[in-house]
Amino acid sequence: MFDPIVAFFQRVFTAIGRGIGLVVAWLLWPFVALGKWYRARSWVIKGPIALILLALVLFYGYFVWQTQAWTNFDPDYVDRYNLAERKTPAGSPVSGPGATTTGQTAELTPANQAAMDAGTSTTEALAVAQLPAGTACQPSAIVDVAADLIDFNVDQNAWISSMLAYKLGFFGLDWDDTPWLDNKASFQRGINQAVRRTAVELVDSLGRVRGTSGINNDLQSARGNIQFDEETWYFGISPFGPKTPTPSFYRAAMRDLRKFNVSLGNCDAVFDGRSDNMVEFLDRIASDLGNTSAIIRERSELHNGGWFDTRADDRFWFSYGQLYGYYGILSAAGADFDNVVTQRGLTPIYTETMKQLRAALRIQPLIISNGREDGWIMPTHLATMGFYILRVRSNLVEMRDILAR
């Protein structure tokens, strides 16, 4: 009784199997034909072709390895800095006459006190008069973290965006437009965005006195180098000729930042840790995160193709990298502005913000899905990431408002 039904399904599945076989054969026939042609040739022709194929395998094998191996990736990397043990604001003396370990700025000499009486801040007053010989100052944790993030991007890992294989794309198609091999590049660009924003603020306000003193040359150089194009290889078309690749500029920025911190540790540079500078710093970061949130919202609302949205992973991992960078930079800012955070009662909300940043870094899906927010099959990872970004941004705005009162 069931024999005709069973026979029908057997014929259906047999037809499907033949169809799949024909498709596979159609896809593979060029390679089969090339294989036959290759076997019929002499070693004079086979040898160079084999070497070329081996070079291509090694070339793309190295590229695939670099995109998949995230060396020293650690969402808890902030713990290595032991920031909770730092009780001296950046730029304040930590040894010699006038040193302090109480979280306040250093005790002023009579010459510095005269500058204070004229209406300048403690940090500015310390910059006005010569500190006693043998004095060492506290380096900036912000600068340390920013330099280490650059090191993580271009020394501990290969900078993917400027690799030749990445620039060539997938048969001419930009890797960013495919679902493969672009996650690490987006993650690195997100970190770089956080470092760029920080470098600008270090030059414009944090590394000078009230914006009226001269710009620090090391910070100025670091800002220029870290702003360099992200995709430059050793050779370019426009303009035509050899070029200095992107990682070289970023390494120069890292060296400039470390040089500034050495000067700051020797009390030869300034870190102006006033509350209004912290207000401006938090405001710029909040604006940066707001821009990323808008990009995520646009992608989530207009291109919610679930697992088939090939650009969702770019947006997700860029945002993830940005939060990864800001987690370290904002944690460091809490140490550099320790006196401001303590005196203005920001410790609870600052601690909560760092917890929210760390919570966002726990989201590490294997495949990024940009599904509908009311969908029940495909998840919406972009909306989840956007939620964490808005939570962090909201706390930054609240801290900014508290400091501005």
TrEMBL record:
Classification via InterPro entries: UCP029693 (IPR016936)
Membrane spanning residue stretches: 12-31, 43-65
A UniProt-annotated Pfam family: DUF2333
Keywords: Membrane, Transmembrane, Transmembrane helix
Record-given protein name: DUF2333 family protein
Organism: Sinorhizobium sojae CCBAU 05684
